[in-house]
Amino acid sequence: xxxxxxxxAALIMLASCRHTNAPAETTPANAxxxxxxxxxxxxxxxxxxxxxxxxxxPVGKLKEHGDFGIGTFNGLxxxxxxxxxxxxKMRANGEIREVPDTVRTPLAFVKFxxxxxxxxxxxxxxxxxxxxxxxxxxxxxxKMYAVRLKGNFRKVEARSVAPAPKPYPELAxxxxxxxxxxxxxxxxxxxxxxxxxxxxxxxxNVPGYHLHYIDESMRQGGHVFGFEADTLSVEIDRIQGFTxxxxxHKDYDKADLxxxxxxxxxxxxxxx
Length: 272
Fold this sequence. Notes:
17% helix; single chain; alpha+beta; 16 strands; 7 helices
């Protein structure tokens, strides 16, 4: 059973004095029993960095572990967003579509999303960095969270990856050589989905914020580099723990997973 924490009125007043756009917290009225409050991930981030772009897990099986999440597809064919149980592919050419259950993934992170905390962050000009600052009192740096942001975005800076040729290169080198397309969306309404993970998950997960965006018409989206939004609805789901299923593809067995790829991860997660 999850517990819900209400801020004392005095603390809310204090926060309001310190931040003119301090978030207002509510407890979700539709909170329900969670079928599985663990994060499920297929493979590890360092394998993708090492060039393991193929996996054996069909997305139909992935959906058994969650209705919310992010990832990519075999061959590095686009960014994945799992929203309301649908697995959507956001390709480098701008095409977005739901994929059949037989499509496979080399890396994905999913869970059943049931928010513990709902916040409203008033605008204007709520940037990605400002959001991180405003949410820091609600997120313990040693724990994991799933987060969902909804609202009107003045601007979203995003990217998607293009299918990689074989033999697969390492990820950072491939993206630096033009294996990604950057997008800048203006005046768009939609949803950011993703996770906030602690530093100790490095080499298996992406420490810090890792978000993907899709607009409400499902015509725009990608991996989020930055944004500026008006008032945002923020939903936070505390993660009890995580399970990793190792990639069974033959490329995973041959990958160099001893190398420290911290700097490579910074490169691929940030806009050049």
